[in-house]
Amino acid sequence: MPDSPNLNAVLLxxxxxxxxxxxxxxxxxAIMPKQVPFLHxxxxxxxxxxxxxxxxxRMDISRSNxxxxxKEELWSAEIELRTSSTExxxxxxxxxxxxxxxxxxDYGVYDITVRxxxxxxxxxxxGNTTLIVTRGKEA
Length: 139
Known about the structure:
It is built from no helices and ten strands. Strands 4-10-9-6-7 form a five-stranded mixed sheet, with no helix packed on it. A three-stranded antiparallel sheet has the order 1-5-8, with no helix packed on it. It has a single domain (about 5-135), classed as Sandwich (Immunoglobulin-like). The protein is globular, with a radius of gyration of 16 Å. It has strands at about 5-15, 15-20, 20-25, 30, 40-50, 55-65, 70-80, 95-105, 110-115, 125-135.
């Protein structure tokens, strides 16, 4: 039995709606605001397998802060996960859409990291993706 669950998907989208199946609207990997700082509303959809125990998922958005390699965290959320005998019992799947409201202070590449926090507050990175913020065209 694995210590950490497996992240099958992490997608950025305008909306993640569950009606018995997931509908992801407006999947993207880049945004193009005309100016920064820029407030953006979106959702992070995650699909986690091998959830044999309860725990929490922690998602955060960060960017490198200069040459020293330190990260500046811009947004984070923690979600309690519980496996149930009725929801995807055989595969131990958990799917969720997490709303995000984040201010992007500058153009560049932002890291989105997903961590599993298990017993004794052990924390493991189970996946990540990036979001590119680039200058949009002027009208």
